[in-house]
Amino acid sequence: MSLMPADWTSGTFLGRADFGEGPSPILVVRGELLDMSAVMPTVSALVEAGDFSGRGGKKLGAFDVASVNLLSPVDLQCVKACGVTFATSAIERVIEERARGDWSAAAAIRERLESRIGGQIRSVVPGSESAAQLKAALIEDGLWSQYLEVAIGPDAEVFTKSPVLSTVGVGAEIGVRSDSSWNNPEPEIALLVGSNGQAVGATLGNDVNLRDFEGRSALLLGKAKDNNASCSLGPLVRIFDDGFTIDDVRVAEVRLSITGEDQFVLRGTSNMAEISRDPLDLVRQTLSEHHYPDGFVLFLGTLFAPVQDRDEAGRGFTHKVGDVVTIESDKLGQLQNRVVTSRDAAPWRTGIAALYANLLSRGLLKA
What we know:
Blueprint: E1 12-18, E2 23-29, E3 32-35, H1 43-49, E4 58-62, E5 78-83, H2 87-99, H3 106-123, H4 129-141, H5 146-152, E6 157-162, E7 173-176, E8 183-184, E9 187-193, E10 199-207, E11 209-210, H6 211-216, H7 221-225, E12 231-239, H8 246-250, E13 253-259, E14 265-271, H9 279-287, E15 296-299, E16 324-329, E17 333-341, H10 352-361
């Protein structure tokens, strides 16, 4: 599959590119590339304006993805994520918790949990009476977990994945903490949402996770999730229209492949049709009683939990430097990143102050 989906010339895509002077919001409308920086200086402002026609943009000709320096497609939006939205990921989080981050204990715990709750948790509706009954039974069996609470209880897990402007784009190096020994990619679909709470489009994302850190304590979630270069998005946000709707997200297949320098290959698939909570319900729960004046991007969670052994039996999967992670979906294209340590990844330097200094120097800020 190429970077863009097969039907990309019939759709509308939003993102950012650097043409040599700094980040510019762009639109790709039916195959044509438009620099929108003179219309709106940021992607968030373009979303708030609500006009994705390309009107007023600088036409740059046919979009050639190989000749454009694409950045992460979002800028001032908050980066939020929902966890444990698939049954399999719920079981894996419980395993991490009970193993206290020790990969060697995972296999035996996984076997016990699968035999006890595997089938039930896959069919239960979160927040329902049957979910409450399952919860009561698990408490009685001594198997209850905080992760099962967000998997089948009324409230979804919602957390801040990374700071504003810290995400990386397609082709960039993606970071895993150098002191983590059990970690994995999390291939997901992410929704782009305006300040009014309306989802305007979707993109692909990698919500890198450190299983050893979070397994030791859920209070280490921030360290497990938010590290230098640990969140990628791209290649572009596909805007919802007559040819691509939220229903396409609800049934999308997200495919993952990991290729290591050690010749290790891992493949997996996440089917959005198996998600426990509807994507728009996750948007609603993220909004809650909050306000996001610049909008937000929301990771919807993943079905994929890698258990394929890499170095030794029972160890399961963990990243090595040099791994190439490819995430793809038919309607959204392909996101590819190479794994390095967060310590060695390019440092994040373009914060909000630096962005606005750049926009000011280019004469793009208007009263």
